[in-house]
9771_t:CDS:1
Amino acid sequence: DNNGGDSENDNNSDDISDSNETMRNNIKIKKQEEDTLSQLSLALSDERNDRRW
């Protein structure tokens, strides 16, 4: 019984570390998206300023 419980715990810890890695990757991707969006909005505002003159 104890051994079975241990292996279940091992499986759970693997799942947890996988989900943590997934979460880290998602955060990284989100950060990249935000950077890209801010660059795009900067480029757009620059273009608007150019057109004004």
Q: What stands out?
A: The chain has a mean pLDDT of 82. The first helix runs from residue 2 to 52. The CA atoms of residues 23 and 29 lie 10 Å apart.
